[in-house]
TrEMBL record:
Signal peptide: 1-22
PANTHER family linked to this entry: OUTER MEMBRANE PROTEIN ASSEMBLY FACTOR BAMA (PTHR12815:SF23), SORTING AND ASSEMBLY MACHINERY SAMM50 PROTEIN FAMILY MEMBER (PTHR12815)
GO-annotated biological processes: Gram-negative-bacterium-type cell outer membrane assembly; protein insertion into membrane
KW Repeat (keyword) present: yes
Pfam (any one): Omp85
InterPro entries per the UniProt record, alphabetical: Bac_surfAg_D15, BamA/TamA_POTRA, D15-like, OM_assembly_BamA, POTRA
Subcellular location, principal: membrane
Protein name (Swiss-Prot/TrEMBL): Outer membrane protein assembly factor BamA
Length: 756
């Protein structure tokens, strides 16, 4: 009987092992831990005091503890009524260091790592971090880079990690192959994509460095290019990058299928919005029946239709396009479908993320207000005006639906940028010589949108100091007010045998008459002095010596339709200035100036034709002559090929430039690529300049006279503009082909400037 009971117990424990530990867990004992508290370990256990031992729960508990990354080894077992948890902690990372990295800074590498100082070491994470470092180098074209991690153990279970990095060399693109292209050459397709074959002159560019993401973008660019040229069946069948055996370069291969070019046959516009003028929508299309199909023209047409309907209050309009191809006839039909939507009104305008700039500074730039009908053009113009403030890195407009279907919230999310700057500038100009300047500006003073600036400029022939303040919205009215304080000095000893200095101030105000028409008014007062006239100077210069006070009022009208104020490629500008001196002081005159500029893209934005014209006249009042400081001087800045102050009235004996009361100039210029990569920023220039300057306002003396005539001067030439990493460099070579014998010529004109 006893033997029978023993066998029964044996089989029971074999079939039901949990019965072998009938005694419940009365205590949990954690051993081996140094930094991690027993309570933290117990929190990850699924076995609890009072439970019976359960192997499944033990396995799950071990898994939970390993997932924390705190431990390198874990054992859990039962000793009678005690559940023992033996752990071996991973070392605590004391320091992470890098050796051999020159192209990437330590801080950039640390951003990518999951294991940093005061975190627990893990072999798995270590290998992941090595892959992340290698990925960073591969994105920069360094596929031969290697990373060797070293773990240096310290006392108290701490460790340092040192990543020994061999950055390797950059794997550049050796060759780009195209297969399947019959209509367009390899050279043409190469100009379309971002990736470029390595060339000696691309030292400032990364376009010849292989990047997998760039390869995907290249495929999209090729597709866009062909769809814009009518090839609606085009596809990139494969795009591969093959690393050469020595891993120092790549060969890219694109296999394409061009298909036929399609012409547009039928065009149809269907509107599910009632009472829409369909004929007006047809007039917005950028193509017509019979034209070559172009995805760009289709998308531009959709954008114009969307903007037009947006101006009518349909903020959420949805315009779909569909095409039906007829490959046999190489023709396709296009249908535009305008889906039904509501006419929308502006509910609320929400400004977000402006921590420094006051709300009303942003709101006053809006061309529509809460409660107004939604208008796409006004929304776009509002966004443009906020961007033009220069206070933000980014400005994003988002339309948010509200509980009311006919109302929308406009959310404006801005990312502020630094608006204060300390700039040092250096440069060279053939008319002024070497120059340098220091400028301290704050364009968003106290977050109110006010501009404050001080600038000191020193050149070989000039020295200027100025302070300015501008309030763009005086008392929240659309009125800009401000003032300038200045001290200017010029050395005209070479051209006109005198030095001049002026100190004064300007009070100014301006406001918009229309969206593009601006009117400005000003009052100026200055004290001038002409001195350092040599004893052998002509009588025409000597009689200008002395001090003088000028008090004047003036105004300007500006009509600006340029697409960019800094580097225009399209549009035009007209500006008229008028100043009247004589409100106090000893100077009396009326001065008129007219400036016009027009820019026309001859071919896309690559070839730009521009024409700039200026004209002016200053007339003395109350019988007073126009002093030499108030006259106009013409030279290399306006008509290239001539020296500074090289055109116009000049004394016969001393060849001193006297300036003139009346002038006009014109410049016709063609800017074009020179065959180098556009990323280099080098462009060629061909130009012709012309103009005239006459009438100094002084009477001829008996003993000595001066040259003065209305003859046209003109020059032609070529030049190079380089927007380099060191600054803007321009070299012009002009040859006068209409000139006078007494004019001063200078063929080369060089200008260089940078800010740092």
């Amino acid at each position: 009987m006893k033997r029978f009971l023993q066998l029964a117990n044996f089989f029971a424990f074999a079939l039901f092992p949990s019965l072998s530990l009938a005694e419940s867990i009365k205590q949990i004992k954690v051993t081996g831990n140094q930094r991690i508290s027993p309570e933290t370990v117990e929190a990850y256990l699924e076995n609890r005091v009072g439970d019976q031992y359960n192997q499944k729960k033990v396995d799950s508990s071990i898994k939970n503890l390993f997932s924390t990354g705190f431990f390198s080894n874990i054992k859990i077992y039962q000793q009678q009524s005690i559940l023992v948890v033996e752990v071996e902690e991973n070392p605590l990372i004391n320091k992470v260091a890098f050796e051999g990295n020159k192209r990437l800074k330590d801080k950039d590498l640390l951003k990518e790592l999951s294991m940093v100082e005061r975190s627990s070491f893990s072999n798995t994470k270590l290998q992941q971090d090595v892959k992340k470092i290698l990925s960073l180098y591969q994105k920069r074209g360094r596929y031969t880079a290697s990373v060797e991690p070293k773990l240096i153990k310290l006392d108290q279970n701490r460790a340092n990690i040192i990543y020994e990095i061999n950055e390797g060399s950059v794997a550049k693109i050796k060759k780009i192959n195209f297969v399947g292209n019959h209509v367009f050459t390899d050279q043409k397709l190469s100009s379309v994509i971002l990736s470029k074959e390595s060339r000696w002159y691309q030292f400032f560019s990364s376009s010849d460095v292989y990047d997998g993401d760039k390869l995907n973008i290249d495929q999209e660019f090729l597709k866009r290019f062909y769809l814009a040229e009518g090839f609606a069946d085009f596809e990139v069948r494969s795009a591969t990058a093959e690393l050469t055996p020595n891993k120092d370069s790549f060969v890219l291969s694109f296999v394409v299928h061009e298909g036929p070019a399609y012409n547009v046959r039928n065009i149809k516009i269907e509107s599910k919005i009632p009472n829409i003028d369909i004929d007006k929508l047809y007039s917005l299309l950028e193509f017509k029946s019979g034209d070559l199909y172009s995805i760009n023209q289709v998308e531009n047409s959709i954008e114009k239709i969307t903007d037009h309907l947006g101006d009518l209050g349909y903020a959420f309009v949805d315009v779909e396009d569909s095409i039906e191809k007829d490959p046999e006839n190489k023709a396709l039909d296009i249908t535009f479908t305008i889906n039904e939507t509501y006419k929308i009104y502006v509910n609320r305008i929400n400004i977000k993320n402006n921590t420094r700039t006051l709300d009303h500074v942003i709101r006053r730039e809006f061309k529509l207000a809460e409660g107004d009908p939604y208008n796409t053009t006004k929304v776009f113009r509002s966004k443009q005006r906020i961007k033009n403030l220069g206070f933000f890195n980014s400005v994003e407009f988002k339309n948010s639906k509200t509980d009311e279907p006919d109302k929308v919230d406009i959310d404006v999310e801005v990312q502020e940028t630094s608006t204060g700057s300390l700039n040092f500038a250096a440069g060279y100009n053939t008319s002024s010589g070497p120059l340098g300047s220091i400028a301290l500006t704050e364009s968003n003073f106290l977050g109110k949108g006010q501009e404050v600036g001080i600038e000191l400029t020193r050149a070989k022939k000039a020295a200027d100091v100025s302070f300015s303040f501008t309030e763009p919205q005086f008392l929240d009215y659309p009125l800009s007010v401000g003032f300038d304080l200045f001290s200017n000095s010029k050395n005209r000893a070479h051209e006109s045998s005198y030095d001049s200095k002026s100190v004064g101030f300007v009070l100014r105000a301006g406001y918009e008459l229309t969206e593009h028409l601006y009117h400005g008014v000003r009052y100026s007062a200055k004290r001038e002095r002409i001195s350092n006239i040599p004893s052998d100077a002509s009588i025409y210069i000597k009689e200008q010596e002395g001090k003088n006070t000028v008090s004047s009022i003036g105004h300007s009208l500006t009509y600006d339709k340029l697409d960019d104020r800094i580097d225009p490629t399209k549009g035009y500008l007209l500006k008229f200035n008028q100043d009247l001196a004589g409100l106090g002081g000893q100077t009396y005159y009326i001065d008129h100036k007219l400036v016009g500029a027009a820019y026309y893209p001859v071919y896309k934005r690559d070839v730009i034709l521009s024409f700039v014209a200026k004209a002016g006249n200053i007339t003395g009042l109350k019988g007073k002559p126009v002093r030499i400081n108030d006259r106009t001087f013409l030279g290399s800045d306006d008509i290239r090929g001539f020296d500074s102050a090289g055109i116009g009235p000049r004394t016969k004996e001393k060849k001193e430039a006297l300036g003139g009361k009346t002038f006009y100039t014109g410049s016709l210029e063609l800017t074009f690529p020179v065959g180098l990569s556009s990323e280099l920023g080098v462009r060629g220039v061909a130009f012709t300049d012309f103009g005239a300057l006459f009438d100094p306002g002084q009477k001829q003396k008996d003993k000595e006279g001066f040259y003065n005539d209305h003859s046209l001067r003109a020059s032609a030439g070529v030049g190079i503009k380089w927007n380099s990493a060191l600054g803007n460099i321009r070299i012009d070579y002009g040859i006068p082909f209409r000139k006078k014998s007494y004019d001063e010529k200078k063929s080369f004109r060089i200008s260089f400037g940078t800010r740092f």
